[in-house]
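ENTRY TYPE: protein
WANTED: fold as tokens:
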Amino acid sequence: MIREFIGIMGKLTCELGEEEGVAIVTLGGQADVYTSPEMSKILDAYINRGQGNIILDMEELEYLDSSTLAALIRAQKKAKNLGGEIKLLKLEGEPRKVFEVSGFLAIFDTFSNREEALKSFKIN
């Protein structure tokens, strides 16, 4: 399922899926003060139904702002309260720079490929 939201910087797309019991949300476009609440609702819906293991595929994300960072921190806290975690996949370009400058890379595990991200949820 693909959801689209219009914000001040443009459109944010969220493609929803699941693989190996992990929710996968693929983000594309621009995440800003108007679209990040919609993204939060999607993440909250997964978490509220007990799905705390989430991968955010950010390969197509072009822009994010501080409201998006705040939304991701809130979602991470909720996921961890369930014993889960939000992990970032293919965080590159300008969005990665925002995470680096803010110091938020220390809060999220990041991966360059989906298989590694999925394996990281396995409990040995």
Notes: The first strand starts at residue 2 and ends at 6. The first helix runs from residue 36 to 48. The mean pLDDT is 95. The domain at 33-111 is CATH 3.30.750.24 (Transcription Regulator spoIIAA).
